[in-house]
Amino acid sequence: MQIFNTSEKTTDIIQALLKDGGVIVKHQAPDELIDNVKAEFRAAFDREGHLFENDFNGYKTLRLSGILGLSRSAAELIAHPLVKDVADNILKRHCECYRIGSSTAIEILPGEADQVLHRDDDFYPIRIPDVEFQIAAMWALDDFTLENGATRVVPGSQDLREIEDVKASDITQAVMPKGSVLLYLGSTIHGGGANNSQAARSGLITTYSLGWLRQEENQYLTIPRKTVDSYPENIRRLLGYQSHGENLGVFPGDPDGNWYES
Ligand SMILES: O=C(O)CCC(=O)C(=O)O
């Protein structure tokens, strides 16, 4: 998996992502922004982060959903220009617009084991050859290291190999400094890493899915409407407040005017 720096061309980043199924781009968000996001998550992590514990998420991992209802600063990561450029390029090959599939803050605590390897898009019941249903952006809110559970990724696994066939030697880890982003395809096998350090490892993963697919996390019922309305149009669109073309998900007030004339 290739590692890029800020200065490199987006087309090269996209090419690497499509080739390897994942790519790291370092130093995309300033420390101050990352610290604000972390501060805005803190109380919610402490209050409700444990509610997501299960065999898949782990029992020493805190999680949060409904991110844009919890942190306004997170909007800057979710709608980051690089992520948008990459999503535009990969997803708009197959749709007119895309939306947030899910957005999840994840704090892996010391003592957590490896998460089960998985593909994010496996919950869609069919595949269409050569169509990526979604991409994901995992922001490092702390330095991601081998010891603290940097996301495990299987480069090339967008070839749809069986997850059971993955060998330890196929797995790499997204070691990256705080403020960097790991981009990966919905079809790429990955999972959280074991945290063998003494400190928590926090990240924010957002998936972006084709506009004609059902969103993984129902943003309409998760984020209060008043909060949605307080965001600018690009964020409202990402949350799903836009129709897909003239016929899917139309509603009064659609920003593209896809509603019946009265
Ligand atoms: O925490 C991580 O590094 C990855 C988590 C993940 O892939 C997931 O929960 O779907």
N-to-C span: 53 Å
Radius of gyration using CA atoms only: 18 Å
- How many domains is the backbone divided into? 1
Major sheet: arrangement of strands: 1-2-8-5-10-4-3
Tell how many strands the DSSP assignment holds.
Answer: 10
CATH class categorisation: Mainly Beta
Biggest sheet character? 7 strands, mixed
In percent, how helical is the residue content? 10-25%
Name the CATH superfamily classification: q2cbj1_9rhob like domain
pLDDT average, as an integer? 97
Low-pLDDT regions:
none
Shape: globular
For the record, the CATH architecture stands as Sandwich
Number of helices: 7
Tell me the CATH topology.
Jelly Rolls
Structure ligands? 2-oxoglutaric acid
**Which H/E pattern describes the elements?**
EHEHEHHEEEEEEEHHH
**Beta-strand percent range:** 15-25%
Q: Determine the structural class based on helices, strands and strand pairing.
A: alpha+beta
